[in-house]
Amino acid sequence: xxxxxxxxxxxxxxxxxxxxxxxxxxxxxxxxxxxxxxxxxxxxxxxxxxxxxxxxxxxxxxxxxxxxxxxxxxxxxxxxxxxxxxxxxxxxxxxxxxxxxxxxxxxxxxxxxxxxxxxxxxxxxxxxxxxxxxxxxxxxxxxxxxxxxxxxxxxxxxxxxxxxxxxxxxxxxxxxxxxxxxxxxxxxxxxxxxxxxxxxxxxxxxxxxxxxxxxxxxxxxxxxxxxxxxxxxxxxxxxxxxxxxxxxxxxxxxxxxxxxxxxxxxxxxxxxxxxxxxxxxxxxxxxxxxxxxxxxxxxxxxxxxxxxxxxxxxxxxxxxxxxxxxxxxxxxxxxxxxxxxxxxxxxxxxx
Length: 351
Ligand code: SF4
Ligand code: SF4
Ligand code: FES
Fold this sequence. Notes:
The chain has 14 helices and 7 strands. With 351 residues, the chain is α+β, with helices and mostly antiparallel strands. Helix 4 (134-142) runs parallel beside helix 7 and helix 11 runs antiparallel to helix 14 (336-346).
């Protein structure tokens, strides 16, 4: 135990004689903190703040202490302090964190005694932790995140919904629009047009609401190539980042399915790729990667992947015996007819 920690314990004992038995020692932490003022700074920089952190302190407490004890100009957003308003989302050592929900010592256990405090998106920083979330809100608005319905001015009874219908969207409705998933999404980093996990979660939430009448319109918006569900790379980073355990990628998967169920899906490389999985399974019971490529991109389209295929073969990622396009080289599994029956029962829509 460091001298400083012992002094802190003694100080604490002097003031809290009744509580000495329950006291837990503090840990010294360095907060390497992103600082930037878009009005005055050309480039961001990092400042280091040292402090003793107690077992009950949240990351938000540490932000408050930077501001109150070290530098009053340090800026960040917070409001509810109860994980409800979504204002305090930042990144700690690259991990999306809701500052008012995250215990600081847990992160010190995870990352060691230097915590790197950064805004959710450094390229959108306005001042320190405060970012410009305009892209987040614009994408949210683009999916009509509200119930669209012809409402009678003076209804005579409520619009009823069964518990099962309500449960269909209950967890997606818990979104607090913190942006943690949005600013952790690698697909968005490379494609500004992509709607992102939070907007797609909202699209799902209102599309499956039985009171809503704009589901097909929303599905058409989210089916767009370049911006919709097919541009998600299914990395699950959004599920990892979400402080409300919403699992946006699960909702994206459901939107894929709804596009087929409601007949909104159009034949394109992405939808044929999805259907190609089934096609291969139906033929042999195995996943036939080569067949998926030829089915989704056509024989001509396939040639653009030849270089990649050769490189993959060279490093042992593809083997000749695992399937050559045009040649039925994949064996069939036993009981293939049972798999085919299951596919027939489960399949909702064909392109
Ligand atoms: S799973 Fe999709 S939406 Fe979620 S973070 Fe990855 S690419 Fe983005
Ligand atoms: S889905 Fe989760 S991480 Fe994304 S904005 Fe909503 S609450 Fe935040
Ligand atoms: S301050 Fe409201 S969610 Fe953290």
